[in-house]
Write a structure and sequence with these properties.
By secondary structure, this protein is of the alpha/beta class. It has two domains: 119 residues, P-loop containing nucleotide triphosphate hydrolases (Rossmann fold); 65 residues, no CATH class. The longest helix is centred in the middle third of the chain and has 22 residues. The protein starts with a strand and ends with a helix.
Length: 199
């Protein structure tokens, strides 16, 4: 059977990507969520728990990875992030491959926040970037519990700038007005459905 058409959905923090992912799902497109895959890996019984415990025992509490402890370690040790990525990235890739292989739909949406940062744009058929003006982005992020301007700036520094993401995207969907976003997504899904070859 032919593999499904892969929509790579991405966008910087606070751009409304999670909302857009739900809209793809509501439009009938199965969505794989990279962040949810990591949460599963870190949960009790998750495939990442034992491996993380080997490199940082303090980061595992009650059989699950304590993400706050992991972040603190990454902040204090320049080698920590690479160590964690070496464990997590292959497991996430396995989860994504299993999701794609397990669907009978003609297209799926892969919700990957760090799609460009991870050099994964070549692994999807179309890159869709969700984008909002900087002031909207900042307002959304700073409204999150516990978020500070310093944390926001640090997160932005780790991500490919929004302007570059938009320039590299196949499709850019604005996410200021929810209904406008939904209209763009529905139109894209309908267009792709018409253009895709029959299974």
């Amino acid at each position: 059977m032919r593999r499904p058409f892969l929509i790579g959905l991405t966008g910087s923090i606070g751009m409304g990507k999670s909302t857009a992912a739900r809209m793809f799902q509501e439009a009938g497109v199965p969505v794989w969520d990279a962040d949810a895959a990591v949460r599963d890996l870190y949960s009790p019984g998750g495939a990442g728990v034992a491996a993380i415990e080997q490199i940082r025992p303090e980061a595992v509490v009650d059989g699950a990875v304590d993400r706050a402890a992991l972040k603190a370690w990454i902040a204090e040790d320049a080698t920590a992030l690479r160590q964690v990525e070496r464990i997590v990235h292959p497991l996430v890739a396995q989860d994504r491959a299993a999701f794609v292989a397990g669907t009978e739909e003609r297209m799926v949406c892969l919700d990957i926040p760090l799609l460009f940062e991870g050099g994964m744009e070549d692994q999807v058929d179309i890159v869709v970037v969700i984008s909002a003006p900087p002031e909207v982005q900042k307002e959304r992020v700073l409204s999150r519990p516990g978020m500070t301007e310093a944390q926001f700036d640090a997160l932005l520094a780790l991500q490919v700038p929004d302007a570059e993401k938009r320039a590299r995207a196949d499709v850019v969907i604005p996410s200021v007005d929810r209904e406008e976003t939904r209209r763009h997504i529905n139109e894209l899904v309908q267009k792709l459905t018409r253009e895709l070859p029959d299974a």
